[in-house]
Amino acid sequence: MNSFSYSRARDVAAAVDEVALPERQAKFIAGGTNLLDLMKENVMHPRHLVDITHLELNTIEDTLEGGLRLGALVTNADTAYHEQVDTRYPLLSKAILAGASPQLRNMATNGGNLMQRTRCYYFYDTATPCNKREPGTGCSAIRGFNRIHAILGTSEHCIATHPSDMCVALAALEAKVHVRGPHGDRAIPFADFHRLPGDTPELDNNLQPDELITAIELPPQGFADHHSYLKLRDRTSYAFALVSVAAALELDGDTIREARLALGGVAHKPWRDPEAEALLIGKSATRESFQLAAEKILQGAKGFPYNEFKIELARRAIVRAFEQALTNEK
Amino acid sequence: MYRSAENEIVEEVENQVHPPTSITLKINGTETRLHVAPWTSLLDALREYLDLTGTKKGCDHGQCGACTVLVNGKRINSCLTLAVMKEGTDITTIEGLAQGEALHPLQKAFIEHDAFQCGYCTPGQICSAVGLMNEGKAKTRDDVRELMSGNICRCGAYTNIVDAIEEVMHTQPAPCHE
Ligand SMILES: Cc1cc2nc3c(=O)[nH]c(=O)nc-3n(C[C@H](O)[C@H](O)[C@H](O)COP(=O)(O)OP(=O)(O)OC[C@H]3O[C@@H](n4cnc5c(N)ncnc54)[C@H](O)[C@@H]3O)c2cc1C
Ligand code: SF4
Ligand code: FES
Ligand code: FES
């Protein structure tokens, strides 16, 4: 790990000020579970860390609109086990609890989870070219071992995936990300938060370097009655997703009134397709309907030599997740 | 150390920019003051500065759980946290679990159930199990398996580890001391 200086931010305004000076090459540190890991690997090397763990962004509160506002510094564990989250947004609880380990979830924060970087092996390996780590050097994964890589929204410059489970649920729930920057506050719809790699794979998301995530806002609709988070991986626990599915339904008898579908492990951001969801509206909640939606969302999926299997895996996982959502079975 | 004048200057500047920070941690009940660099992990602070070598370094990347300690009663990976960030917290390591000669019930159960072979993962397993009991979320054997998945055992003592935890969980349903 490189040497760096350290300061503890008093309040949100001070945190934004402290990180803003470009010559300082500063970064926020929250749980530390991703940043310190990457610093030990010499993938990231900030010269200054601004500790934001003492900011008062550590509460979960009702919003006026009837939703819930999750503070950026609340830990993933406290969020998942929060009584309101667990009862009104169980999809989110389940997605969080499907990720990492209890120790890591006790440290990891909601803001940090959104900002975590890809687990692409070449991104971590400073001996190999990687456009995300060092723009312009090339992508080692495209012709390398790409089993864990993306099948949707890739570019010739990067085929990495976003590794978060929590974010897949937040995408399905249409959360909003509240941020504070030097010029004030803004809210980013979840679908616009993360980016596709395009020709700037070094940018994971649209947050500016001097902006601080302050909260994640959940809208009132939580799909508590019919939802499922299905995570498929190489071992049953403590592993990143090969494919994960957040599925949610609002039913009127047997008829689908509203549907949400987001995929993890398949793209540079949680993957949604409004047309696939629209296909389900007004249909009866059957396997055939779910298959149609699966076909639609995977239209245009493109495999690489070692991850071709993900396309069929995702197709089946989507159908299974919707079937589980019908009964809320685990 | 450095031959060129230039390098000497660099070193001096580095030391001015990054002076060791003085922090106070309450470790196993005792207020402890230490001087650490900003980049010293809590794990290294415990092992290298305080000689509390019960806490183990396995992977140093949050993947194995050998470094698990309790901070304010919650289990965390001490390898992925900076000592300076834990200023003012209450830390319990494996050395702080026994009361004098009386072992913690989980320590006793690990011995009775033969829940280790080489013992390298054991301090982390036991601290993690204390955290699991404080959390109170595990009800079934499968829950214990899932909620202990952050602790890897190279020797594969998993079955006996779960036996040991289950026994203590069922005889002491209330959270045990931190
Ligand atoms: C072994 C291992 C297994 C894991 N498995 C999974 C898994 O299966 N599923 C999963 O989803 N995740 C998994 N994770 C990742 C984990 O969830 C993330 O590391 C964690 O959520 C990051 O949060 P943090 O608070 O520790 O972030 P930090 O490490 O503190 O920060 C990460 C980045 O976010 C920035 N940042 C933090 N907070 C803010 C803020 N409020 N505003 C702006 N920027 C901010 C920091 O500057 C930094 O660049 C795993 C991690 C490890 C080490
Ligand atoms: S997939 Fe992206 S992160 Fe991985 S090597 Fe290619 S450019 Fe780097
Ligand atoms: S040493 Fe910390 S998790 Fe392995
Ligand atoms: S007892 Fe040897 S690693 Fe667990």
From TrEMBL, chain A:
Write down the EC number: 1.17.1.4
Give the matching InterPro entries.
CO_DH_flav_C, CO_DH_flav_C_dom_sf, Diverse_Substr_Oxidored, FAD-bd_PCMH, FAD-bd_PCMH-like_sf, FAD-bd_PCMH_sub1, FAD-bd_PCMH_sub2, Mopterin_DH_FAD-bd
Primary enzyme class: oxidoreductase
Q: Where is the FAD-binding PCMH-type domain?
A: 1-223
The protein's superkingdom reads Bacteria
Provide a Gene Ontology MF annotation, just one: FAD binding
Keyword annotations for this protein, in alphabetical order, are: FAD, Flavoprotein, Oxidoreductase
Protein name from the UniProt record: Xanthine dehydrogenase YagS FAD-binding subunit
From which organism does this entry originate?
Answer: Rhabdobacter roseus
TrEMBL record, chain B:
What are the 2Fe-2S ferredoxin-type domain coordinates in residue numbering?
21-97
Transferase listed as a keyword: no
Q: Which organism is it from?
A: Rhabdobacter roseus
Which InterPro entries does the entry link to? Answer: 2Fe-2S-bd, 2Fe-2S-bd_dom_sf, 2Fe-2S_ferredoxin-like_sf, 2Fe-2S_ferredoxin-type, 2Fe2S_fd_BS, Aldehyde_Oxdr_Iron-Sulfur, Beta-grasp_dom_sf
Domain of life of the source: Bacteria
Keywords, in A-Z order: 2Fe-2S, Iron, Iron-sulfur, Metal-binding, Oxidoreductase
Asked if the Swiss-Prot or TrEMBL record annotates the protein with the keyword Thylakoid, the reply is: no
Q: PROSITE patterns, alphabetically?
A: 2FE2S_FER_1 (PS00197), 2FE2S_FER_2 (PS51085)
A GO term for molecular function: 2 iron, 2 sulfur cluster binding
Protein name, per record: Xanthine dehydrogenase YagT iron-sulfur-binding subunit
